Every structure is written in structure tokens, then in C-alpha cells.
């Protein structure tokens, strides 16, 4: 499982011109979390998903080295199968390592649920849709998290 976490002051996801998820947090900052699930993750995904939710909530990557949980900051979670694109050969990425959508969706939803259980305000994209993601990066500060 992989996530690209970007510190933002605002971020939004639109589908067919309609906003489906947005965070606006100029005071505390927040995170845009692009989360991908691989085929390898599917065998025993709950512990990995729990760990990913914990990392998203507890990594001290907001301004002042505080976490989302400490700051009461929001998170926008967007599923991102392209994080598993293989580009070593040729000019066209291979998506063979990405989990199929119907199997990845429950994993992403589980991560969102675990974050909400921590009283973190979570918005999300629309799984499987063509999404337009916009963000105002702060720092810029972006990290790759793998579980």
C-alpha cells in the first residue's frame, strides 16, 4: 500500500464538474492523501490499511512538526491506482501491480473509516471516477508512505 501525502491549505476533488470532496484549512493545514492499493496488499489487507490510517493520522508533517490528529486538521483521501504504475520498461506504464478496483475500494473505504474513528474530518474522491484534483500545496511538503 502506498500513499503520497501532501501538506495543503486547501484541496478539492470534482467529478463531472461537481465537487465531491473538499478541505479548506488555511489555519491548521491539512493533508491530501493519494492512496494506492497493490495486488500484494489484498491477501492480508486490514493490518496494512490500519497502519496506513495510523501513518496518515500520526505522521508529524504539518507545519510545526505536528500531526493531523494533534492539529485537528482535515484530510482529503483520493484513491490512486496509478501509484503502482511500472515505468522501468518502454514508454507506457504497466498497471499490473495495482489491485483491481472492486477489491481496492473496500480497502480505501476502510482507511477512511479508521481516520474518522479518530475524529479526523475526512473528505474523499469518488472511487473509480475520472476526478479532477486541485490543491494548494504548503511548503511544498510531500512524502511517500509505504506499508
UniProtKB/TrEMBL annotation:
Record-annotated membrane-spanning stretches: none
Top enzyme class: hydrolase
EC number, UniProt record: 3.1.1.96
Cellular component terms per the entry's GO annotation: cytoplasm
One Pfam family from the record: Tyr_Deacylase
GO molecular function: D-tyrosyl-tRNA(Tyr) deacylase activity
Keywords from the named record: Hydrolase
InterPro entries noted in UniProt: Daa-tRNA_deacyls_DTD, DTD-like_sf
Similarity section: Belongs to the DTD family.
Protein name in the entry: D-aminoacyl-tRNA deacylase
Organism, as annotated: Corynebacterium accolens
Classification lineage: Bacteria, Bacillati, Actinomycetota, Actinomycetes, Mycobacteriales
Gene name linked to the record: dtd
Amino acid at each position: 500500500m502506498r500513499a503520497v501525502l501532501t501538506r495543503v491549505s486547501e484541496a478539492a476533488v470534482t467529478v463531472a464538474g461537481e465537487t465531491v470532496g473538499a478541505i479548506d484549512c488555511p489555519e491548521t493545514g491539512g493533508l491530501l492523501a493519494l492512496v494506492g492499493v497493490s495486488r500484494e496488499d489484498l491477501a492480508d489487507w486490514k493490518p496494512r490499511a490500519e497502519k496506513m490510517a495510523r501513518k496518515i493520522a500520526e505522521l508529524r508533517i504539518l507545519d510545526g512538526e505536528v500531526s493531523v490528529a494533534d492539529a485537528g486538521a482535515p484530510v482529503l483521501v483520493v484513491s490512486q491506482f496509478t501509484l503502482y504504475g511500472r515505468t522501468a520498461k518502454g514508454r507506457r506504464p504497466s498497471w499490473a501491480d495495482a489491485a483491481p478496483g472492486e477489491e481496492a475500494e473496500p480497502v480505501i473505504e476502510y482507511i477512511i473509516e479508521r481516520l474518522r474513528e479518530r475524529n479526523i474530518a475526512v473528505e474523499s474522491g469518488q472511487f473509480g471516477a475520472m476526478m479532477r484534483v486541485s490543491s494548494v500545496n504548503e511548503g511544498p511538503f510531500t512524502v511517500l508512505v509505504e506499508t
